[in-house]
Specification:
alpha/beta, TIM Barrel, 4 domains, 8-stranded parallel barrel, 18 helices
Length: 510
């Protein structure tokens, strides 16, 4: 069996897509989960793109061990220096530099002749190599490039010291049979290619990102670049969970395997969805809520007789627990701690205490606390940060013949402040009252609500996306009361704006 490497770019290509804006702590949380998932490479960001990107790469490089940590850089000295500055404390750093190779990009975007592009690529790889032992070169828009030019430039960067060459389908244009042929052609015609790793990076504009990546694996690719939940520019990147489970389920076909701990897939997907505020479609392969539910009578009958009639992989193999309901109000700290360990969480004693405190409050309101509830509490409590604004009191009056009105009391920098407002609905009234206290102009872009589990006493999880000064901030709130969850979610987003304003020393808050 060949070992295919999984290069995760959720924190770079995923994070750079529209409407996603993770802070450093959130990036670290995702990186820790990617390490648990056992990916081979974490592309932690594009260090030169912003101070936040730099800080994210640096924090991940410093903390995450046992996995290669990478930063993207254009093929210019300043970018490569910045990438190295952020990466240099990593246990196993990788500089990823890229330059476009298609005629259309070279002519219109770079305004450079092909010879000049080769020269720049070689110089960039040589410089990166002088700093870092592992260097990846990407031929941007490779799938619309001339195949012989690709062989030439890739051969030259290999000579210059690249250890990985990447073949991106930047605009999601190629189809699987053609991509398979391209990978074979490159392997046969690129000087020195047998000494380096061949990577592929597929976008999903035609919905073929995963199929193209798998065709490349069948034709000799050593590494696949992908993202959790298929996040990424435009229609996204190839979805990590789909590639990994296709290779695992059809291993005899691919004669390949990955190192991924597949039981961590659902948890990774939920964490990324929560922190980015991007909900998943229900029928999303592998990680969608319906991916393992069987509704049709004939299917259910078959499943009862033998699960293999309609199940090609088990829910357990991707981390969906069959024995969901486990704990109740009589469960002690020890039982909660044990269940968290069984679920794969590696929390400190303080984090367990925090989660247990929330568990007791929830168990008081809810008879049975499921694994999903517990995981939602961990995401909400352990991954939360110290807040400047906290909800102290909330009263809402609403109905079909009353004007919705909310009274809110917030703790703002330790002081209690109260306000009231009317609105088009109860949530609108709450948000207007909060705005009066905090006095900041934001636009509510998205509001989503979902039940963490089924049942009348289910926890409600609200996710909001607000925009301030062109930047998007995601907030989450968790409560058995959806009105309270809505207020907490909004405050969570406003707290993030306050934190980022503080970092930039901006006077937007009074
Ligand atoms: O899609 C692309 O071409 C990229 C490269 C920078 C690898 O993301
Ligand atoms: Zn990309």
């Amino acid at each position: 069996m060949k070992m295919v490497k999984i290069f995760d770019t959720t924190l770079r290509d995923g994070e750079q897509s529209a409407g996603i804006n993770l802070n450093v702590e959130e990036k670290l949380q995702i990186a820790r989960q990617l390490a648990r998932l056992n990916v081979d490479v974490i592309e932690a960001g594009f260090a030169i793109a912003s101070p936040g990107d730099f800080a994210g790469v640096q924090a991940i490089a410093r903390e995450i061990k046992g996995v290669t940590v990478c930063s993207l850089s254009r093929a210019v000295k300043a970018d490569i220096e910045r990438a190295w500055e952020a990466l240099k404390e990593a246990e196993d750093p990788l500089i990823h530099t890229f330059l476009a190779t298609s005629d259309i990009h070279m002519k219109y975007k770079l305004n450079k002749e092909p010879d000049k592009v080769v020269e720049m690529a070689v110089a960039a790889v040589k410089y990166a190599k002088s700093l870092c032992p592992k260097v990846e070169f990407s031929a941007e828009d490779a799938t619309r490039s001339d195949w012989n030019f690709l062989c030439r430039i890739l051969g030259e960067v290999i000579k210059a010291g690249a250890t990985v060459i990447n073949v991106p389908d930047t605009v999601g244009y190629i189809i699987p049979s053609e991509f398979g042929r391209l990978i074979s052609y490159l392997k046969e015609n690129t000087p020195g290619i047998d000494k380096v790793q061949v990577s592929v990076h597929c976008h999903n504009d035609l919905g073929l990102g995963v199929a193209n990546s798998l065709a490349a694996v069948e034709n000799g690719a050593d590494q696949v670049e992908c993202t959790i939940n298929g996040l990424g520019e435009r229609a996204g990147n190839a979805a990590l969970e789909e590639i990994v489970m296709a290779i695992k389920t059809r291993a005899e076909n691919f004669q390949a395997e990955t190192r991924i701990h597949t039981e961590q897939l659902i948890r990774s997907s939920r964490l990324v969805s929560t922190l980015t505020g991007k909900p998943l479609q229900h029928n999303k392969a592998i990680v969608g809520t319906n991916a393992f539910s069987h509704e049709a009578g004939i299917h259910q009958d078959g499943m009862l007789k033998n699960r293999m009639t309609y199940e090609i992989m088990t829910p357990e193999s991707v981390g969906l627990s069959q024995s969901e309901i486990v704990l109740g109000k009589h469960s002690g700290r020890h039982a909660v701690k044990n269940r968290l360990i069984e679920l794969g969480y590696n929390l400190t004693e303080t984090e367990i205490d925090q989660t247990y405190q929330r568990f007791i409050e929830l168990a008081d309101k809810k008879k049975e606390v499921s694994d999903s509830d517990l995981e939602a509490l961990v995401r909400d409590e352990v991954y939360a940060m110290e807040d400047r604004f906290a909800l102290d009191y909330l009263h809402v009056s609403t109905g079909n013949s009353t004007i919705p009105t909310a009274t809110i009391r917030l703790k703002k920098d330790g002081e209690l402040i109260q306000e009231a407002s009317c609105g088009d609905g109860p949530i609108d009234a709450i948000y207007k009252a909060i705005d009066r206290i905090i006095q900041i102009k934001v636009k509510l872009d998205e509001y989503n609500i979902k039940a963490v589990t089924s049942g009348e006493d289910a926890l409600g999880e609200v996710t909001v996306k607000v925009r301030e000064n062109g930047n998007a901030y995601v907030g989450r709130g968790l409560s058995t009361d959806i009105i309270e969850a809505s207020a907490i979610a909004y405050l969570h987003a406003l707290n993030k704006i306050s934190r980022s304003a503080k970092q930039k020393a901006s006077p937007i808050f009074t």
